């Protein structure tokens, strides 16, 4: 019994000693932790206050010019307008001396075209035909219009080789557009082989339309004589 009481008192003494040692250490540790945490909290607040310092901005607005600057640009030069073509130019090798020949007692201009050409079929050089165009009056003495453009007829090759000359007299009407129409053959000598090239050429002629009351009208009673001649 005495032994058990001794053991109990010894255990109580050891426990009391441990408590006496642990309590001061725990107290010191708690105080240290409290101080450390207080220091940490204070430093964090200081950092936050420093970071949140008010920021000042100097805002300068640059006012843009509302009025746009105008660029001075030179206008491109207008393209040169080609001059309106006049009468079709005849080949340079053709010469057109103007002569006059009476027809129905009226003088008119006569265009003569001369060129030289070599006919290899015959083996000799001959002159190209002279095409004489004479404009005259009919019985009613209608005013004869002068053509603005005159196409020359082609000389029939067969008659050229045979050196046959001739002429064709035609009557026609000038339309509102200035073109010959209603072409009629009045006379063809010595053969009708000259009629076709003469009529085809006359269809391509151009006249100034007749104006009456400010309006273009037909002009009838026109007559023309186309001669086919070979230069000597």
Automatic annotation (TrEMBL):
GO terms for molecular function: energy transducer activity. One of its GO terms (cellular component) is plasma membrane. It is a single-pass membrane protein. NCBIfam families: tonB_Cterm. This is Protein TonB. Belongs to the TonB family. Keywords: Cell inner membrane, Cell membrane, Membrane, Protein transport, Signal-anchor, Transmembrane, Transmembrane helix, Transport. One of its GO terms (biological process) is protein transport. PROSITE patterns: TONB_CTD (PS52015). Its main location: membrane. Interacts with outer membrane receptor proteins that carry out high-affinity binding and energy dependent uptake into the periplasmic space of specific substrates. It could act to transduce energy from the cytoplasmic membrane to specific energy-requiring processes in the outer membrane, resulting in the release into the periplasm of ligands bound by these outer membrane proteins. Residues 83-99 have a biased composition (Low complexity). Residues 140-232 form the TonB C-terminal domain. Pfam families: TonB_C. PANTHER family: PROTEIN TONB, PROTEIN TONB-RELATED. It is found in: Cell inner membrane.
